[in-house]
Amino acid sequence: MTIQLTGVSKTFGDFTAVHPLDLTIPEGSFFALLGASGCGKTTTLRMIAGLEDPSAGHILLDGTDITALPPHRRPVNTVFQNYALFPHLDVHDNVAFGLRRRGMKQVKNQVAEMLELVELGHLARRRPHQLSGGQQQRVALARALVNKPQVLLLDEPLGALDLKLRRQMQLELKRIQTEVGITFVHVTHDQEEAMAMADTVAVMRAGRVEQLGAPAELYEHPRTAFVANFLGTSNLVEAEVTAAGGGEAEVKAAGSPLRLPSARMPEGTGAGDGVLVGVRPEKISLTPADDAGGVPAGRNRLTGRITEASYLGVSVQYLVETPACPGFAVYEQNVERDPRLVAGAEVVLHWNPAHTFGLQPGRDPGREIAAGHRRGGAVTALATAPPPAAGGSGGPAPAAVRAPRRRLTPYWLLLPAGLWLAVFFVAPLVYQASTSVQTGSLEEGYRVTWHFATYAEALREYGVHFLRSFGYAATATALCLVIGYPLAYTLAFRAGRWRNVLLVMVIAPFFTSFLIRTLAWKTILSDGGPVVGALEALHILDVTAWLGLTSGERVLATPLAVICGLTYNFLPFMILPLYASLERISPSLHEAARDLYAGPATTFRRVTFPLSLPGVVAGTLLTFIPASGDYINAQLLGSPSEQMVGNAIQQQFLKVLDYPTAAAMSFLLMALILIMVTVYMRKAGTEELV
């Protein structure tokens, strides 16, 4: 499918990421957008995918304008830079995601065939985190290709791989593109990667296409200094044209005459004009100055002195100081090395004039890049071993002697936490346990008799309080989830610059006493208060009375009042873990779902909510557990018939002074909550998402 971009541009505020761009990508081609970071290549790709809206212009697929189509309605799929695999799905379900959204049949067979194509059939039931980087890249490729898109977009998918694996995957991508025969659009900053895989390369700079053509055409015939230096390395020399006629032009650089084909000169260049003369490092040969007479006639030549010689394995990289250029780069294959070619040697550089090209003179923004590459290569080649440790001579590092102490360090760091746990949790727990099995009275004294009748008596007498507490806590937790999830979602994905303000509003109740906040609700829910008035106006009091949550025209001193208080006081405990869980979800996962034909509702149901389950579990536990043992809300907002188990425990401790019963009730509350939490965690099944 042919892609056409007509006058497409993209601006972000005052910044123009992509200037008006006209581009045609032929059907069935492997097309590469090549450029440095910030040049607009990824933005262009995202506009084709529908993940960014163009500020102007039109995008056409085979003549059909798709500019306004959302991503899930375009016959285009994307392989993202970070792969964007869904962590809650295994390899098979990741690959099947797009097929299921489209309602395709025989999904299992299609997925199996695609996994065989990328040689991952034996890993179908593994999760993404169990795969290597190369395997993840192939899963992302299979997930896109299985949908048989008319265009496949690849956003630097090989950038995170090591060199060996990257080269292997380059061949793999090219093989797959040849087999499936669809249009590939590949974004990369790696020149070698673009040249190895693409049929056509567009070199981008500052939101514009500098040059477009086949890799060999761009490399051998660059039209600008930027292309000459970005696509490989070039030696550029300032020169003056002395003759420009016939099939060959002559120039002079620092007094040395050079020749090049007239066809490779900038248009309109004549005698007396300035020009940048370029030649690639691998086109140049080096000959010791003593053998200068052996250089064949008719070749361009310069004299100079070697300043650096770096052994790179497959080749030797030289830097030569010449009158025309202080850092002339020369690459010679490691075949028959001349031992005389060392730093300080006087040499003659010579090359075929046909390998010389001319460019318009002026600012050379790519020259520094090339120089940096040359210097970096030399440093990398020479600095292969770290310096010995201070005071040592290559022997074992002193750290090896200190290893046992380092192994003990984590345990010493845990000591304060262990002491805190022992003093403020374990010791009180042991004391309460011993109290719960005591008999006697405050007057006569208590003694441990290991008599467990207190537990049975507490359950028999206060069983209703336990049930009421868990019922109120569960209802308040459900309300906190219903209210808190949209708020947390807004904070994570929609708040923008207001996020910090909204977060402060969520945690603001923590700066006020729990008791004062509950007393405030007592005023709000009182007869004649705003809540009662609103419920009367909406005729909701009749419904709540029928449900047994209110009494007549009253809200205060009813179950509804207690539940409202619990919901308000514990709502931040729900929102914060939900927000933390939602914020961890990479935006690229949402984009991947949209790219795989999932609309907003499906994206939420299949991606966002499953990935936020750790936050749902944490929020419900942080809300339910303290709400179950709360007593302030029931005491201030409820009546004696709405008292919770926390109120009963408080009464036994402070009024009746029956410490064994109070301790037994406390242990029963803790045990019942622990049982419910354990069952809930096993049913939630979110351990693989954390």
Describe it:
There is one protein chain. The radius of gyration is 37 Å and the shape is elongated. The model is unreliable at 363-401 (pLDDT under 50). The two termini are 41 Å apart. Helices cover 46% and strands 20% of the residues. Strands 6-7-8-3-9-10 form a 6-stranded mixed beta sheet, sandwiched between helices. A 5-stranded antiparallel beta sheet has the order 13-12-11-14-20. The protein has a 5-stranded antiparallel beta sheet with strand order 15-19-16-17-18. Strand 1 (3-12) and strand 2 form a beta hairpin. It is α+β, with helices and mostly antiparallel strands and 690 residues long. Helix 20 runs antiparallel to helix 23 (659-684).
The overall average pLDDT, rounded, is 86
Shape: elongated
Distance between the termini: 41 Å
Strand order of the main beta sheet, please? 6-7-8-3-9-10
> How much strand content do the residues show?
15-25%
Total strands: the figure is 22
- Computed structural class: alpha+beta
Rg to the nearest angstrom?
37 Å
Largest sheet, strands/sense/barrel: 6 strands, mixed
Q: Low-confidence parts, pLDDT < 50 over ≥5 residues?
A: 363-401
| Separate helix tally | 23
Helical residue percent? 40-55%
Q: What are the SSEs and their pairings?
A:
Layout: E1 3-12, E2 15-25, E3 30-34, H1 41-49, E4 56-61, E5 64-65, E6 76-79, H2 91-101, H3 107-117, H4 133-145, E7 151-155, H5 163-180, E8 183-188, H6 191-197, E9 200-205, E10 208-213, H7 215-220, H8 225-230, E11 235-245, E12 248-253, E13 256-261, E14 274-279, E15 285-288, E16 300-311, E17 315-321, E18 328-333, E19 346-351, E20 357-359, H9 367-382, H10 398-401, H11 403-436, E21 438-441, E22 445-448, H12 453-493, H13 499-507, H14 514-524, H15 530-537, H16 541-546, H17 559-583, H18 587-595, H19 600-611, H20 613-628, H21 632-637, H22 645-656, H23 659-684
